[in-house]
Amino acid sequence: MRLTARDHELLKLLKNYGCLTTQQIQTKTFNNIALTTVLRRLRVLNETGLVQKILGLETSERLWALTKQSVERFELAPAKVNFPRAILEHDALLSTVRMRLEDSGISRSWIAEHDIRKRVAAKHGVANIQRRVIPDGAMSSLIGNEIKSIAIELELSNKNQERYRQILWDYSRKKSLYAVWYIVATKTIQKQIEHAIRDVHFYETSPKILFSVLGEILNDPLEAAIVSGRNTQTARTCFASESAHPDAHRVSGLRPASEDSHTQANPS
């Protein structure tokens, strides 16, 4: 089968995101061409073994991802090809959150979890991956007038306190990060993480811990509340444009831009 330029664009998109719904693919690569046309092409790519169709979402939406064959044939590694049912909703929502943050201008660049995992393995060895915290994603954002690195954690359900303490302890030593942004399904999850924070010592160089509610991010990322300690501001204020006054970014407990000058999303 002869692949079109759009097919190659789609394969690269799936490598980058991991998985996408039919509607997301329609928006990103087919310029909102009729959904029936998009599905027809996806079925052809599926039948030839280049993309896989993933079912099981509560919304009954189809998810699409690369196959091992397409990764090897087109040298698309690192890419995600396995999607356990237990984390399917998480993976699908993460792609949606990422798109919302990118479309709003909050995220200037993004490194996916599977890409971070490969970088950590290359730097510290495969055997050490399990002992290192791997975020769901890492993005670079404009804080004040500088680009900062922020780890993204999408939390849809509670972990136990010991696990939260271990994750937070690992993050507390990451000087390359400006912040860890927890996007939580409920305020209850946020309270559980905040409880674990009390047992972890954070240094002056440790990243900030931020919280937002998932529903607010999906509705309007720029108007979503960002909580840092006892302070709250909107994402629009936190992730301000270059033209904003620098003093506007010294509120809400967020570290001023002058204290850190990292320019790439790099959580490893």
Q: How would you explain this protein's 3D organization?
A:
The protein is an alpha+beta fold and 268 residues long. The protein folds into two domains: 5-83, Arc Repressor Mutant, subunit A (Orthogonal Bundle); 96-259, no CATH class. Helix content is 38%, strand content 19%. The protein contains ten helices and ten strands. It has helices spanning 5-17, 22-29, 35-47, 68-73, 88-103, 113-124, 161-172, 187-197, 214-219, 235-238; strands at 20-21, 51-54, 63-66, 109-112, 137-143, 146-155, 179-184, 208-213, 225-228, 231-234. A five-stranded mixed β-sheet has the order 4-5-6-7-8. It has a three-stranded antiparallel β-sheet with strand order 1-3-2. Strand 9 (225-228) and strand 10 (231-234) form a beta hairpin. Helix 7 (161-172) crosses helix 8 (187-197). The longest helix has 16 residues, at 88-103.
Helical residues, percent: 25-40%
Number of helices: 10
Structural class: alpha+beta
Q: Give the N-terminus to C-terminus distance in angstroms.
A: 40 Å
Order of helices and strands: HEHHEEHHEHEEHEHEHEEH
Report Rg: 19 Å
Largest sheet: number of strands, sense, barrel closure = 5 strands, mixed
In terms of per-residue confidence, which ranges show pLDDT below 50 for 5 or more consecutive residues? 241-264
Strand content: 15-25%
Average residue-wise pLDDT: 89
| Overall geometry | globular
- What's the assembly state of these chains? single chain
User: Quick one: how many beta strands?
Assistant: 10
